[in-house]
Design a protein that fits this description.
Elements (H helix, E strand, L loop, with lengths): L4 E14 L3 H16 L10 E14 L3 E5 L6 H9 L6 E6 L3 E4 L12 H11 L4 H15 L14 H14 L4 E5 L7 H16 L3 E5 L3 H7 L2 E6 L2 E6 L1 H13 L42 E3 L4 E10 L2 E2 L3 E3 L3 E10 L3 E2 L1 E9 L4 E6 L11 E2 L4 E9 L5 E12 L5 E16 L17 E5 L6 E6 L5
Parallel strand pairs: 3-7, 3-8, 5-6, 6-7, 13-21
Antiparallel strand pairs: 1-2, 1-4, 8-9, 10-21, 11-12, 11-14, 14-19, 15-18, 16-17, 16-20, 20-21, 22-23
Amino acid sequence: MSSEFSVQVDGLGKCYQVYELPRDRLKQFIVPRLRRMLGRPSASPYYREFWALKNASFAVQKGETVGIIGRNGSGKSTLLQMICGTLTPSRGSVRTSGRIAALLELGSGFNPEFTGRENVYLNGAVLGLRKDEIDARFDDIVAFADIGEFISQPVKNYSSGMVVRLAFAVQAQSNPDILIVDEALAVGDAKFQAKCFAHLKKLKAQGTSILLVSHSTEQIATHCDRAVFLKSGDVVAIGKPRDVINLYLDDMFGVERVGDVEAAALPTEDVAEQSYGLSVTDDRFHLHPTYNAHEYRWGDGGALLLDHCMQEGGRADVGAVHSGAGVQLRLSIRFISHIVRPIVGFTIKTKEGVTLYNTNSELQRCGSIGGSGDAGHALGVAISFLASFAPGDYFISIGVASRQPNGDVVPHDRRYDSILLTVLAAEHQAFSGIFDVGAQMQSEFHGAAAGGVVAKGGADAAA
């Protein structure tokens, strides 16, 4: 195993024998043995095989955080259990380097009859810590868990959130070489989650490899260097979180990618004016300087996003704007089939894939869009917004869908990360972070003795 890697998974698979009836299990135990004794050939087994994981291969570098996403039943927990060594693979191999700490199930490794204090020592011993090591870290564990006097109460009296607090505190304070978190943080409150992710960042800086399973694509995009997408036991994709998340979202909606769609004839009336002069016949996204060739496009093709143009001030087709500038994004949509109640969506993300803003015509109650579109007709949409972001590169995703009578949303054409927006520093950059929320500061100075107002000013900066 290379010294650069803390985890190496090679052709890993796990197969379970599934029996339709309880008596089939007994038959499988007895009949093959009898046939061998009688010298008869083997018969068909009384079970069917279910592969929870199939031929998974990847490696995790030291100090790397890898996110694992997929639907329930896709094989995520099975994979992690085999990496931890609590489940035996049916084929393939797992090699790890260093101490492993894992949060696989809520309360795993805890005795509900023991107090929190006793479980700290029990769980620490399971992790391979000596008593003196646990003694030295006990105060830090209790402080991190922040469950107060409940540390002396039986764990069976804890809420699920308190169990996670204590379990994560023990695992994280053990200074593992590999930390595995399987959706456990989902039950924690927002403050505790923020504390946990801050600690994960600290562990990563120390060289700890982290495997994070979460249904939150935002967590995967924010905290992971790479992502693995599992589906029905297969590794569908491994790569940058943003790209893998797009594939995962595609799978969640279960819609085929937009392909070649038979064009509907344009109506006789002039539709160019309706679409702000943009193309309503050909896909011209790639002709604009803002186009991202690595976009991810999918939908059923009932309507197509064919053209776009970003404008700022008197400039058209701009690729870069200054922070705080007013921008208008114009879109051209062509209906391939009759669409009732179309919805046009708009999302801005960081280049890491974190969503900064999202809205759609339904949320905006844009009545002019919410009617219907006949096959061959075109729709022009103008989206105005302030680019109140910190200097950097951002991706815009757009989409057109429709609301069905039963309430379901059918995606027709979604173009993830299709438009690149570059934001330049303003002449006076009055904020740091990701975006400007328009905060204003005022201050009042009071005399030390009289306590009255001495002076009043605005926009004072203390930090």
